[in-house]
Amino acid sequence: MSGSRRSSGELSVSAVASVRGSGAGGATQSSSPEDTLDAQALTRLLQTDSPRLLVSSLPPSPAQFLQAQRRGDQYTLVAHLCRSWLDAGLSEREWQQALQTYDQQLRNQPKQVAKGGSNAQDASGEARWTLETFSIWLMNQGRRLRECSHWFRAFDFDGDEMVGVADFLQGIVAVVSSSGARAGGPGTLSALALFRLLDLEKEQIKDESDFKARLDQVYAESQAILNDIGLPAALLVQKAADFESFRVAILPVLQSSPALRLSVLGGV
After folding, report:
1. 122 within a domain of the structure (yes/no)
2. Residue 221 is part of which domain span?
């Protein structure tokens, strides 16, 4: 669709950067080193470090990792993941459980062979979940096969068409924040995940029927959700086209829908 397509990952990295970036130049001024972030720097982290991040590179305790940070320390992707996890009200036990789950599924994943005949891993030996591995995990959480590719897209925060451990941790934060089970969780990750879940990042909706068709892929009661949103068709198209407008006008209704919730913590 002319004028409506966006490249994969174009919104993801900039929107995730807004979790911490604010104020002039996108930088947050804070008395705590772990809260200091340049939005452009996080964008680069997601594009370069996220695909290469290994489970073994992550600390066993996000709280202890952040406490060890000193003023002036560089804000890393690991710090971003730890801070987002704690901001969502998630526990250290759940962090360790999530890392264990990711690693176990990765170990069970068949080796991917690239076109040249080598394993689909870079020089560092990193590996990430494929759609197939993600789908196996997601169906164990009670979701249907037809939903898997949509949720895979929602979890792929760095836009590389794989789900790395950084994507996985951010995805858990997003769905926990979406469920409303934990007050005060970071809303940007939740908003971005749902925006991508409905493929609004890559293609704008044409009309109300198009929006309903996308909801039908992942929501059992799509018409009820449309009724709750309560926007005229033209305004719905307008609000769904822009991430910030979507976040304000549509996200609260989607977050309140039980159909969207992933019970990841019990099955992580």
Report:
1. no
2. 10-109+127-267
